[in-house]
Design a protein that fits this description.
With about 190 residues, this protein is α/β, with parallel strands linked by helices. Helix content is about 45%, strand content about 15%. The protein has a single domain, classed as Uracil-DNA glycosylase-like domain (Uracil-DNA Glycosylase, subunit E, 3-Layer(aba) Sandwich), CATH 3.40.470.10. The model has no long low-confidence stretch (mean pLDDT about 95). A six-stranded mixed beta sheet has the order 1-3-2-4-6-5, sandwiched between helices. The structure holds uracil (URA). The site of uracil has 11 residues, from helix 3.
């Protein structure tokens, strides 16, 4: 597991977490990774098979697409962002995280967001978007614009797995959302 200095205590606490039943089936907690002073914070759903083994978020196929979009649309690298998930432990067989699991894990994400203090949060897919926007609406309905979030902005977009499944319009939508985030950050030339 890698985590930034200011979050070390929280990551240590999380590493032995038993707040929900996912603790019984995980290999390890996937706390989060990146720059603790990042202006840009990505929130995914939960660790998959590769993440559960390696202890880092988005290191499998979805992660490779995320890295590519970060490079191509934001002209930066994952190391200059912070990346975390709604739930820190892999749901068995990659099933959806359950409401009680999301609630149990939420304090970790809230503390990560408070510690990093990003200017822009990009939510990847329905679970992160619904949790942080406090909506029941799906990603297809809410994406395409930015929302106020803390003292910054939240940009909802598709999960990279959806772009890998569907390609085409979903991938184009993700690219447009990343460009939106870049503009909000003032990184556009
Ligand atoms: N999908 C996610 O939502 N998070 C990961 O870390 C990996 C895949």
């Amino acid at each position: 597991m890698t985590e930034s200095t200011g979050l070390v205590d929280l990551a240590r606490e999380a590493s032995t977490c038993t707040r929900c039943p996912l603790s019984g089936t995980r290999t390890q907690v996937v706390f989060g990774t990146g720059d603790e002073t990042a202006e840009l914070f990505f929130v995914g759903e939960g660790p998959g098979h590769d993440e559960d083994l390696q202890g880092e978020p988005f290191v499998g196929r979805s992660g490779r697409l995320l890295d590519r979009l970060i490079a191509e649309e934001l002209s930066t690298t994952r190391e200059r962002c912070y990346i975390a998930n709604v739930v820190k432990c892999r749901p068995p067989e990659n099933r959806n995280p359950r409401p009680a699991e999301i609630e149990a894990c939420r304090p970790y994400l809230d503390q990560q967001l408070a510690a990093v203090g990003p200017r822009v949060v990009v939510t990847l897919g329905n679970f992160a978007t619904r949790l942080l926007l406090g909506t029941d609406d799906g990603i297809g309905k809410v994406r395409g614009r930015a929302y106020p979030f803390g003292s910054g902005h939240l940009v909802p977009t598709y999960h990279p797995a959806a772009a890998l499944r569907s390609g085409g319009a979903v991938l184009a939508g993700m690219r447009a959302d990343f460009v939106r985030a870049k503009r909000l950050l003032g990184w556009s030339s």
